[in-house]
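Reposting from the mailing list since nobody answered there.

I have sequence plus structure tokens for a pair of proteins and want to know whether others read the tokens the same way I do. The first protein:
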Amino acid sequence: MATGNIGQRDSMVDDDYMLDEDEVDESQMTLIEHLEELRWRIFKSLIGIVIGAIVAFIFREQIMHFLTLPLPKEADVLGHGNKLVVQGVAEGFTVFLKLSVAVGFLIALPLILYQAWAFISPGLYSHEKKTALPFVFIGIFLFLAGISLGYIVLQYPVQWLINFAATDFTELVTADSYFTFVAFFLLAFGIVFEIPLVLTFLAQLGIITSQTLKKKRAVAHVSMWIAATFLTPGADPYSPVILGAAMSCLYELTILFIRFTKH
């Protein structure tokens, strides 16, 4: 009888061990499946960027003409309509390639955000999904709005920087330096316009409240105006003023938005 009980207990131990081992294997497979899904999400996003870059490369002349509109006439020192200069045999191609990839990223941005959303959403609660999905569309809208405003403002720092030493130097504006300047300038505006989204997300997590933003209003506005002077590469007075005013307006709109969305 005792021998039968011992054998039964050994059998139960063996069953528990096999069950634990199966659970570990299942957990490991679940992790592998998540990594595999993440890999495919990233791969699809990269495919979207490549397709967008190809489309942008096809229309590279039109894109370059659009981005060089803020350049003043003083930049055309050659007098043949060649406003930008390239150095080296391959620089013209590499500049167009970098420009195409940057524009391709913007074209593929909705797809990238969708892939990120599709990967994260299974782990969210239903109420979090309802909140997160509008955030994706609002984030895209705010980023594009920031870039649009940055393009409008772009002419002021470009004209100021080129005309600043025009009487002392003959400045040859290279394509690589100009488009790098444009990319950082527009990116600064695009990121700044994400401030309401970030603050609202923190409010949804309970980290901050609209009352907190009201109490810190004076410090926040001063900090944003100081940051605006560093975020705008040009030394002209217009860019930091416009960016600072935009940041202040976005901050105040964020307070109202949190009050209506936070329950």
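The second protein, same order (residues first, tokens after):
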Amino acid sequence: MEKTEIIDSAAASIRMGEELDTERLDQFLRYTIPGLQGELILKQFPAGHSNLTYMIKYGEGEFVLRRPPFGRKARSAHDMGREYRVLTALKPVFPYCPQTYAYTEDETIIGCPFYVMERIKGLVIRRELPPGVTYTPDQARLLLENLADVHMALHAVDYKAVGLEDFGNPTGYVKRQVDGWIDRYRQAKTPDAPDVEDLMGWLVEKMPPDSGRASVIHNDFRLDNAVVDANDPLKIIAVLDWEMATLGDPLMDIGNSLTFRIQADDPEEMQLTDPLPPGLQFTQSRTEMVDYYMKKSNFSFGDINYFYCFGLFRLAAIIQQIYYRYYHGQTKDERFAPMITAVELLFKKAAHAIDSPEF
């Protein structure tokens, strides 16, 4: 088979240790996806810290391959079959999902299960705005409100009607999440990781009962997991990274999203972690984000501060799981080296939120 080559500035050379068997992959794709023409060109998208994402190109056709990370991983957090299933089921009623094309559990191809979906061309708004893109304060607020509207649309999907009634168990979801992430943090704890037994005890003690509301939840819903239209950067056209999607309490989903909303009165070190670009920072506070959702959805949130605190803890645990792989030499990706600092900051913010609830 002919060699791969760089053909896309959005994708980069494949990181050392994360190469795929291109010959076996090419055979599988040609058998599974009709009409592929030309040689397989394979590159890797450099963003993301968990599941790995590769760009596939055959002639004018472009696709995205998703696979679990190398090294130790929580199997339930990297279930390619679940990710493929939720995207396939939601696509007809939630147009922000990419179209899926192929899935396999045959590990003889690249060493693990993986799936292939369409590549959605657009812009991802990260800490640095794409060239030529600017937002006025009013436009920035509208973009974040549009993002919230998409989130509400996801929570409004009739999951039974699209065949996802067994995609998760909403009953007892909050307790399973709290207990589960406490256990995952303890398992991923490295010698340099913080001891947060007090925080974990608070989460168990203050845990609210089930709200009685259930929906498909994304579990990592934030602006840099969305794609905006390159010709209209106020328009959300896709939502990516569905690896943690399930059925559960939408309050959990919103609490997780709040952890990515940094505001002007946060400690300075937290402001340094703001994923939003300067033109969007401090545009919409966490309280304003919650108020907007409640007003548009007519849904009362109850004690949202608990879910925000849990979201901070959960995010810290996720980052610690990633850092664990780096600490033990299971990945050579140097982006992971400073992650222990982020874990410390998130725990500090959670403790601050407990002492001075803002909602």
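Reply #1 (J.P.):
I read it the same way you do. The two ends are 59 Å apart (CA to CA).
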